[in-house]
From TrEMBL, chain A:
Domain Metalloprotease TldD/E C-terminal residues, every copy: 226-478
Keywords, alphabetical: Hydrolase, Protease
GO molecular function, one term: metallopeptidase activity
Region of interest (Disordered), ranges: 311-338
Native source species: Micromonospora phaseoli
GO biological process, one term: proteolysis
Domain of life: Bacteria
Protein name: Predicted Zn-dependent protease or its inactivated homolog
Pfam families (UniProt xref): PmbA_TldD_3rd
Automatic annotation (TrEMBL), chain B:
Species of provenance: Micromonospora phaseoli
Sequence segments annotated as region (Disordered): 75-95
Cellular component aspect of the GO annotation: cytosol
InterPro entries attached to this UniProt entry: Metalloprtase-TldD/E_C, Metalloprtase-TldD/E_cen_dom, Metalloprtase-TldD/E_N, Peptidase_U62_metallo, TldD/PmbA_N, TldD/PmbA_sf
Descriptive protein name: TldD protein
GO molecular function, one term: metallopeptidase activity
Origin superkingdom: Bacteria
Domain Metalloprotease TldD/E N-terminal residues, every copy: 22-85
Family listed: Belongs to the peptidase U62 family.
Ranges that cross the membrane: none
């Protein structure tokens, strides 16, 4: 099926309308219903040992219905879109609602409200075939110049529509592409990744070269004693911080349950930190699962916590309005920001120590293969001003020890280097850390923010982070390769 | 058209488009979950979906296509597109692909199930969670949560070699958790584990957990933990409860013996393995007490099935025997690459996902001791139970786990409660230090094993019992 220019969200809107009508017919005009119908075309070409070994594509349809009848609420979903299947879904969800206990916390339906049209989406990306993805993989592999490579190239297209029995409806479409890969030099890996609106903007060769350069720079690592070190975190590592802050901190349900560190109005972070959830900064759907329009939400403004993300239920619990973050799991795990943008130096709350990237950057470049450790001049500038510390490419398998203090353990991955006198001097074996993320970004802890951000893919379609490199005063490494 | 007809149409279309091998899975899955919070039902969800996934091998390259409908037209189109995708894979080719031989099977299999979990009324299930969470709230929990989940999956498998297998697998489970919020940190206690215990079984499993009977105790323990002393830092003897040891097995044995990881197929994401195939049969993985099996035939365990998603019958195999590494989790293509003669551990998370190497039931055989004997034999140490956090490196060597609760062990007796217990180590060194193992085996179910791109969630089982490990580093804190 062609998914792009020949295919709109009209079909989804029609199905959503049918479901709302069915609920009214079967449960009466007093029943409240909200429906989201979505179709996703996802294709992912995966490679390892420098060959494509898994290559998948598929269509998925989801009809998601929530009803509130006689004070009781139930949710159900399915992928049937013909009349019999839709009726079965409605009957199943209505039956479930009859058996559930009363729901006094029901927060009502979203009233009719203007939803802006989808941001630009690229039909060529939506319609991309396996040959185009394979060509990008070929370019990545070739650019690694003999090193073993692994990773993926992904394209996705989404069309969705929303309707509820309060008369509100919306529809939208989005397309995206991403590439994420590593090159391997013996036991050392280097990584490069990129999320884009348009497949044509992916440069497989550039990513392959970057990954290979980092892998070569990571070869022959030495073991370093654990302890507290100043660090420069590259954008991929910063992305992990943003994701965990988002999931456990800027999550309105966890905030309402007093399990989040977030305290709006309090200067919890260094003034260099400004963090915005910005779903419309790239191709994305313009409404959430409750039909609330998505919009930019400033979570941290120059170090001061400004807001947390809400769906209608968590918002009602604390007496505020939804921020447009209802998702499939928001009623249980909580509403989570998924398009996080950390402001670069010079755009908000920049640290006073920031200097010229162009001049300072050249000073930190080491010779030989070690030069490949630093992927860009902006990160080089941060490294050049670190007396002794570690350059961290990526973080891995980060897990929460305590959600309130947001103490997290995890490991470095895909490259770790010792920096001495502003120069990368040695590759270092991966280290384990145990660190409170809010404390690592607390007032005075962020020494410098990079001047340029990279947009990086999340594991799920529709989610990304955009971050510059960060120079932090301290990071708590608690274990080495030997334990 | 029937599910088998759709699968056969997809396979035939892939062959007609140039595939030298093809297989297809039709799956129909119903899912139900309910969560309760502090005496009220928080969410009830019921999902149902059906679709078809077809895999084609053209030359030495694979392609896969999934469609959410079962018409003849859709099935044939999916088969053709899978072959087209496989052809595109040939632009970046790998070494020749073979499949270890398999005998074509025509079979039907169902998992044992006494009480259909979707047949139990929502009112009964809701009353259980409401009562348990209300009791926890009444006994001091700031946040009292309860959860059950049910999966009812029917699947039909057809291959171009002549397989024709249908299976019905019902899985369910549940649990409760109490959280107390203190000054700057939270403490949590769960029963029987966080998010519950699961099996390939009926509602009788949830009944057997007796959630309400444990609600008051765990709520009170979560509050007591707020003022308990911090788990001290240092090296000591560590006794792990069976639930925590199950996750230790999952992370530091189960994933490490996945053949796709060993071969580098997961290098960019899930990671590789510290294991080298050249050492299969000779490597010392752990102590003599360590006997780990790969066994999808255990009745009721979460990783059980009749046939895997390549049509290989469920067979019990050794992974570690008397501490020596002797087996892997494999599929037909990865086994052929490694020169092995068995697959049997390939599954897909639904019709829309590619089958890949997954754990089945990977766990320990019983040891000669009991937990009380282990405690009595320990002069100084820490007992930890119920997982709270888990992290391990991409080679499955360096791990750090946190548990919900610890107890000081002094002179063979369980002493005061300890908060924030954590331990860390290196997989093989840790397993070589195991010197006591209980016979009290429970097959713990893990319904949230993530792997693959696009992401897949696997259901795995892990027979485990309490055990003692010598000289382990504990008390890692921020």
């Amino acid at each position: 099926m062609s998914t792009g220019s020949t295919w709109a969200a009209d079909a989804e809107l029609e199905v959503a309308g049918q479901v709302v009508e069915l609920v009214a017919r079967l449960a009466g005009a007093g029943a409240q219903a909200e429906v989201t119908v979505s179709r996703t075309e996802l294709a992912l070409t995966r490679f390892a040992n420098s060959a494509i070994h898994q290559n998948v594509a598929g269509s998925a349809v989801d009809v998601r219905l929530r009803v509130h009848v006689a004070g009781r609420t139930a949710t159900g979903g399915g992928n049937a879109v013909l009349a019999d299947g839709l009726r079965a879904l409605v009957e199943r969800v209505l039956a479930a609602a009859r058996f559930t206990p009363p729901d006094p916390a029901w927060s009502g339906l979203t009233p009719p409200v203007t939803v802006l049209a989808s941001t630009d989406w690229d039909p060529a990306t939506a319609d991309a075939g396996p040959d185009e993805r394979a060509a990008l993989v070929r370019a990545f592999v070739d650019a690694a110049d003999g090193l073993a490579t692994a990773g993926y190239c992904r394209t996705a297209y989404r069309a969705a529509a929303f309707a509820n029995s309060a008369g509100h409806s919306a529809r939208g479409r989005a397309a995206e592409a991403a590439m994420d890969g590593i090159a391997r030099d013996g036991g050392a890996d280097g990584t490069a990744r990129h999320w884009v609106d348009r497949l044509a903007d992916l440069d497989g060769a550039a990513l392959g070269r970057r990954a290979a350069a980092k892998a070569r720079a990571a070869a022959d690592p030495v073991e370093l004693a654990p302890g507290r070190y100043p660090v420069v975190l590259e954008p991929a590592a910063v992305g992990d911080l943003l994701e965990n802050l988002s999931w456990y901190g800027f999550n309105g349900k966890r905030y309402a349950e007093r399990q989040s560190f977030a305290a709006p109005g309090v200067a919890q972070f260094d003034r260099a930190v400004t963090l915005v959830d910005d779903p419309l900064a790239a191709s994305g759907l313009p409404f959430d699962l409750e039909g609330t329009p998505t919009r930019a939400l400033t979570l941290v403004d120059a170090g001061t916590t400004n807001a947390v993300a809400h769906d209608r239920r968590s918002a009602a619990e604390v007496g505020t309005a939804s921020t447009g973050h209802a998702g499939p799991d928001s009623s249980t795990f909580g509403p989570v920001p998924r398009n996080l943008r950390l402001a670069t130096a010079g755009t908000a709350g920049s640290a006073s120590t920031a200097g010229s990237a162009s001049t300072a950057g050249s000073a930190s470049m080491a010779g030989g293969d070690l030069a490949g450790a630093i992927a860009d001049p902006e990160t080089a500038a941060l490294v050049s001003r670190m007396q002794r510390g570690l350059l961290v490419s990526d973080l891995w398998y980060t897990r929460v020890l305590d959600p309130l203090s947001l103490v997290i353990t995890g490991l470095t991955r895909n490259g770790l280097w010792l920096v001495e006198d502003g120069r990368v001097t040695r590759a270092v074996r991966d280290l384990r850390f145990t660190e409170s993320y809010p404390r690592a970004l607390a007032p005075g802890a962020v020494l410098e923010v990079g001047r340029r951000a990279q947009r990086l893919p999340d594991r799920t379609v529709g989610a990304w982070s955009e971050a510059p490199s960060l120079r932090l005063a301290s990071w708590n490494f608690t274990g080495g390769a030997s334990g | 058209m029937s599910e088998f007809d759709a699968a056969e149409a997809a396979v035939q279309a892939a062959l007609d488009a140039g595939a030298r091998y093809a297989d297809a899975r039709v799956m129909h899955r119903r899912y139900e979950s309910m969560t309760a919070r502090s005496g009220e039902v928080e969410a009830l969800t019921q999902d149902e979906n059906v679709g078809l996934g077809v895999r084609a091998l053209v030359g030495s390259s694979w392609g896969f296509q999934a469609v959410p409908e079962l018409s003849d037209r859709a099935a044939r189109d999916a088969g053709r597109r899978a072959a087209r995708t496989a052809t595109a894979s040939g632009l970046v080719p790998g070494p020749p692909v073979d499949l270890v031989p398999a005998t074509p099977v025509t079979a039907s299999w169902s998992a044992p199930c006494e009480v259909d979990p979707l047949g139990v009324s929502l009112a009964t299930k809701g009353d259980l969670l409401v009562a348990a969470t209300r009791t926890m709230a009444d006994h001091g929990a700031d946040l009292a949560e309860g959860l059950y989940q049910v999966w009812d999956t029917a699947k039909w498998f057809v291959s171009s070699e002549g397989h024709r297998i249908d299976q019905r697998i019902r899985e369910c489970g549940g649990g409760i958790s109490a959280t107390s919020v203190g000054d700057g940190e939270t403490q949590r206690r769960s029963w029987p584990s966080y998010r519950g215990q699961y099996g390939t079984t009926g509602w009788e499993l949830v009944d057997s957990l007796d959630l309400t009977a444990h609600a008051a105790r765990i709520a009170e323990e979560s509050r007591e933990l707020l003022s308990a002393p911090l788990c001290p830092a240092g090296e000591t003897d560590l006794i792990l409860g069976g639930e925590q040891l199950a996750l230790q097995i999952h992370e530091s044995v189960g994933h490490a013996i996945e053949l796709d990881r060993i071969l580098g197929w997961e290098a960019a994401f899930a990671g590789t393995s510290w294991l080298d195939l050249a050492q299969l049969g000779s490597l010392r993985y752990g102590s003599e007490l360590m006997n780990v099996t790969i066994d999808p035939t255990i009745p009721g365990a979460l990783g059980s099935f009749g046939y895997d998603d390549e049509g290989s019958p469920a067979v019990k195999r050794d992974a570690v025997r008397a501490g020596r590494w002797v087996g892997v989790l494999a599929g037909r293509d990865s086994a052929a690459v490694a020169g092995l003669d068995y697959g049997g551990s390939v599954r897909a998370d639904g019709w829309a996902r590619l089958p890949m190497v997954r754990m089945t039931n990977v766990g320990l055989e019983p040891g000669p001791h009991s937990l009380e004997e282990i405690i009595a034999a320990t002069d100084q140490g820490v007992l930890m139970d119920i997982n709270r956090s888990w992290s391990i490196d991409d080679k499955r060597l360096n791990f750090q786990f946190g548990c919900e609760i610890g107890w000081e062990i002094r002179n063979g007796r369980r002493g005061r409660m300890l908060r924030n217990p954590t331990y860390t180590g290196i997989g093989p060194l840790f397993w070589r230090s195991m010197d006591m193992l209980s016979a009290e085996i429970v097959s713990w179910g893990t319904p949230n094993c993530g792997k693959g791109q696009p992401g897949q969630v696997g259901h795995t089982g892990h027979p485990a019992a309490p055990a003692r490990f010598r000289n382990v580093r504990v008390g890692v804190h921020a």
